[in-house]
Amino acid sequence: MAKPRKVRCPQCGGDALWAPENPWRPFCSERCKQIDLGAWASDSYAIAGQVSDDEAGAPGMDFPNTPER
Ligand SMILES: [Zn+2]
After folding, report:
1. pTM for the complete prediction?
2. Would you say 26 and 18 are in contact if contact means Cβ atoms under 8 Å apart?
3. What's the pLDDT tens digit per position in 24-59?
4. CATH topology of domain 6-56
5. Minimal CA–CA distance to 4: which of 16, 13, 17?
6. Among candidate residues 55, 32, 35, 54, the one with its CA nearest the CA of residue 43
7. Could you state, in order of their start, the residue ranges of all structural domains in the chain?
8. For residue 54, how far is its CA from the centre of ligand 1 (angstroms)?
């Protein structure tokens, strides 16, 4: 049996179990993974968008004013 390894959670800095029973590795929990993915997504979106001053043409990330039914 392999010993369970512990790694440092990149999100909260706590101990995260690096093992098959931790589906969120290298994070310690689902919450930390979600937070990190969210930060990554917004970062890459800002980079990929290459918007400087006007975001008038920014696609798709706004809240819809009129929800379709
Ligand atoms: Zn964590």
Report:
1. 0.52
2. yes
3. 999 999 999 999 888 767 766 565 555 556 655 556
4. Erythroid Transcription Factor GATA-1; Chain A (3.30.50)
5. 17
6. 35
7. 6-56
8. 36
pLDDT digits (tens, 9 = 90+) for 13-24: 999 999 999 999
Q: Which helix (H) or strand (E) holds 35?
A: helix 30-49
Contacts of 49 (CB under 8 A, 6+ apart): 55, 58
| Alpha carbon of 26 to ligand 1 centroid (Å) | 9
How many angstroms is it from 43 CA to the middle of ligand 1? 20
3-state helix, strand, coil in the chain (%, to 5): 30, 10, 60
